[in-house]
Amino acid sequence: MAISYFKKHRTFFVALYAAIITFLTYATVYAFRKPFSAGTYQDMPRIFGLGYKDALVISQVLGYMFSKFYGIKFIAELKHFGRGKLILILVGISWFALFLFAIIPAPYNVIFLFINGFPLGIIWGIVFSFVEGRKATDFIGAALAVSFIFSSGFVKSVGKILMVQLHVKELWMPFITGLVFALPMIILVWLLEKIPPPTEDDKSQRVVRSSLNKSERIIFFRNFSTGLILLVIVYVILTVFRDIRDNFAADMFREMGFGKNAAVFTETETPISIIVLLLISSMIFIKNNARAFFITHYLIIAGFFIAGISSWLYLHNMLAPLYWMTLVGLGLYIGYIPFNCILFDRMIATYRYTGNVGFLMYVADSFGYLGSVGVIILKTFFSGHMYWSVLYGNGVILFSFIGVIGTAIALYYFKAKYKKTKIVYA
User: Fold this and answer.
1) Within 13 Å and on the Cβ side, how many CA atoms surround 163?
2) pLDDT of residue 331
3) Residue whose C-alpha is closest to residue 314's, from 389, 382, 212
4) In 3D, which of 419, 389, 333 has the Cα closest to residue 152?
5) Which long-range contacts (C-beta less than 8 Å, at least 24 apart) are formed by 4-10?
6) Structural contact between residues 375 and 388, judged by C-beta atoms closer than 8 angstroms
7) Which of 388, 63, 369, 380 is nearest to 237 (CA)?
8) Distances in whole angstroms, Cα of residue 71 to Cα of each of 68, 158, 235, 360, 375
9) What angle do CA 38, 97, 262 make, to 5 degrees?
């Protein structure tokens, strides 16, 4: 009886299993990436005029950025064997870099955040390759992408607890946090490899996903160049402000009087995770790929409105700091998350173009992290002693306006292209 019930509802159970495992797997990856940002490193030396934490963030983001540029080729050509072992090797390298970060004295240990970031930047594309091209990819991808939000706050809370309650030193905290999550990481990667491949029905509705060589990547990009360039610009904006919030939330909370509250990260990120997961995963009910693709653009626009309006209210003392951090995060993630789970997957299915999401995502990500590095450097050298919260709030307002315009133009382009191609299918 139970076996026949499972067979009848196999698609649902596979999707649920894949969603849970990818969520937990990528959440554990964050334990090797984000805990360092829970520290403030106020007593550490400046490096080439940069604050020590600014230098750490730039070093890791540079590693991530170079990883994303490399990943354009690597993920586009990724084969579907040995992926689990590759994930563990990459995580192991990043973890060893955190060990060296702890034992090598400052400022020389900053380089190890670069080494930590490079291998971790490849992992998203590997994990997503297990779940793309399915009828349930919207739901599974939403769970995977929401892990960005929840796990970032969760692992920083773990790092803060290690420092505040167990008196772990700031420099050792990232490595020890990784140690806490090492065994779960191994188990989850093993479970990740047990996810069944896409069915024939999945392939029919969402197009067979395949690797792309260099010439195929060039042709793909040329066919959608105007729209993709606009979306990359929008994604750069979202990545910059999402990444600044992620890396400097501890500093902003300290400026707003929450410096001693270790749970504040989880308090803001958990409701965001739940709302975004429910919102994005509901896209699974839209079977028409073109309709879902275009609706996703409206979601991104709505996210910019939420982020921009909440920042304006906060800067005019009409919104409490904790509510602002939650709402601005909600808006940015409503815009950011679709890129990582729906937008490009539905785009490929809409235009029936063989390829893979990883290629498009890594093109966007590489420029996104390049933008993050640039903004952090500009803030450090040109904004004097301006508070992160003030700079961030004003920046969100300005670039939300640009983001709305850019997304609207991209939507017009893709709709026109869709009508021109005359593709009609459910």
Assistant:
1) 25
2) 95
3) 389
4) 333
5) none
6) no
7) 369
8) 5, 30, 17, 10, 23
9) 15
Which residue, 419, 153, 425, 399, is CA-closest to 300? Answer: 399
CA distance 273 to 32: 20
In angstroms, rounded to a whole number, what is the distance separating the alpha carbons of residues 89 and 95? Answer: 10
Q: Residue 412: left (phi > 0), alpha (psi -120 to 50), or beta?
A: alpha
Task: List Cβ<8 Å contacts ≥24 apart for 308-316.
Answer: 308/396, 308/397, 308/400, 308/401, 311/392, 311/393, 311/394, 311/396, 311/397, 311/400, 312/397, 314/393, 315/390, 315/393, 315/394, 315/397
Instruction: Domain ranges for the chain, please list them.
Output: 2-421
Query: 47 forms bridges with which residues in the sheet?
Result: 50
Q: How far is CA 48 from CA 52, 55, 110, 171, 388, in A?
A: 9, 9, 12, 20, 20
pLDDT in tens, 348-361: 989 988 778 888 99
Instruction: Please provide the DSSP assignment of 176-243 as one string.
Output: HHHHHHHHHHHHHHHHHTTSPPPPHHHHHHH--B----HHHHHHHHHHTHHHHHHHHHHHHHHHHHHH
Apex CA 113: angle with CA 112 and CA 119, to 5°? 95
pLDDT digits (tens, 9 = 90+) for 66-118: 999 999 999 888 887 889 999 999 999 999 999 999 999 988 999 999 999 99
Quote the pLDDT of residue 58: 86
Amino acid at 313: L
- Between the CA atoms of 16, 21, 26 and 30, what dihedral angle is there, to the nearest 10 degrees? 110
Per the DSSP assignment, residues forming a β-bridge with 209 are 355
Question: Residue 307 burial by CB count (10 A; 0-12/13-18/19+): exposed, middle or buried?
Answer: buried
**Summary mean pLDDT of the chain:** 87
CA-based max dimension of the chain: 69
Please determine, for residue 7, whether its predicted confidence score (pLDDT) is greater than 80: no
Q: What is the pLDDT of residue 69?
A: 92
Give the DSSP H/E element, type plus range, for residue 105.
Answer: none
Contacts of 384 (CB under 8 A, 6+ apart): none
Rounded CA-CA distance 423/418 in Å is 7
User: What is the fold, at CATH topology level, of the domain defined by 2-421?
Assistant: Growth Hormone; Chain: A; (1.20.1250)
Task: Give the relative orientation of helices 225-255 and 214-223 as an angle to the nearest 10 degrees.
Answer: 90
Cα dihedral value 250, 92, 78, 334, nearest 10 = -20
CA distance 346 to 245: 28
Amino acid in the structure at residue 330: L
Q: What is the pTM of this model?
A: 0.80
